[in-house]
Amino acid sequence: MANQLLEVKSVDVFYGDVQALWEVSIQVEEGTIVALVGANGAGKTTLLKTISGINSAARGEILFSGEHLENLKPQNVVDRGIMHVPEGRRLFANLTVLENLRLGAYVPRARPFFAESLERSFTLFPVLQTRKNQKAGSLSGGEQQMLAIARALMGRPKLLMLDEPSLGLSPIFVKTIFELISTLNEQKATILLVEQNINQALKIAHQAYVLKTGKIVMSGAGNELLADEEIRKAYIGERVGRRQR
Ligand SMILES: Nc1ncnc2c1ncn2[C@@H]1O[C@H](COP(=O)(O)OP(=O)(O)OP(=O)(O)O)[C@@H](O)[C@H]1O
Ligand SMILES: [Mg+2]
Questions:
Q1: pLDDT, tens digit (0-9, with 9 covering 90-100), for 85-108
Q2: Which residues sit opposite 24 in a β-bridge?
């Protein structure tokens, strides 16, 4: 049987009285890219936050390497090797690139590998080395996204969760980010990717789930969903069709 690193089973999540997730189940196999796609407000961020321990599940189970995560505090989830790059990046704008990276390696399991992780970050993102003493807030949007991902990698994740990494970036940076995600995966990283850029996300995903108003309505291999007529109509839109003609 496939080695499932993460298993979310029938999770319900509420904001006050309002239910945001309904019996959501997903599986992330070790060494794969899993995409979570869906329209604005579908509950994608809510699911990542629930895995991270920021939101709590009212019902259901979250298993990471077989260990229950539900009811753990966010810090304890991080300590187990789940790194979440949130929507909007949340860097420390007044700290330098290097200081941000140092904070990423703060978790006990990552601290001993600081020098090695830093070298890897600079190899993956040479621009961060060039700008290592610059304030994070002075970087371009694309550079900030790279720093946010590099900071998460400094924590030596077993699972990397990326919430809309390509949002607001210029086309060239979007391409760079998707190439990077593929490269990380070739280097054995397991990635749970939330994206609005559904076309690109499905292209690189081994497995994908479609979330609609808090429910998983479809799942399958990335290329299967990419070829699905309904998905193309609902989420990829006519633009793709026009371009192909
Ligand atoms: N802190 C909160 N309090 C109350 N409701 C919330 C909160 N955060 C999200 N919601 C609601 O939960 C639902 C799911 O939101 P969520 O942010 O998870 O969607 P999303 O799929 O990430 O959307 P987007 O693509 O716009 O980022 C939405 O109806 C949203 O209004
Ligand atoms: Mg979101």
A1: 998 878 999 999 999 999 999 999
A2: 11
Which of 15, 48, 217 maximizes ligand 1 atoms within 8 Å of its Cβ, making it the mutation to test the pocket? Answer: 15
162 within 8 A of 191, measured Cβ to Cβ:
yes
**Ligand located closest to 20 CA:** 1
197-229 core/surface letters (b: 16 or more CB in 10 A; e: else): bbbbbbebbbbbbbbbebebebbbebeebbebe
CA 158 to centroid of ligand 1, rounded, Å:
26
Cα-based angle 86, 88, 91 (whole degrees, multiple of 5): 80
Name all domains of the chain by residue range, CATH numbers in brackets: 1-42+53-81+192-245 (3.40.50.300)
> End-to-end distance of the chain based on CA atoms, in angstroms?
42
Q: What is the largest CA-CA distance in the chain?
A: 54
- CA atoms of 106 and 174, how far apart (whole Å): 29
How far apart are the CA of 140 and the centre of ligand 1, in A? 27
For the stretch 113-169, pLDDT in tens is 999 999 999 999 999 999 999 999 999 988 999 999 999 999 999 999 999 999 988
Measured from the CB, is residue 52 less than 6 Å from ligand 1? no
Query: Would the pTM of this model clear 0.90, i.e. be above it?
Result: yes
142 lines ligand 1 (CB under 6 A): no
β-pair partners for 219: 209
Q: Which two tokens stand for residue 128?
A: 């961060």
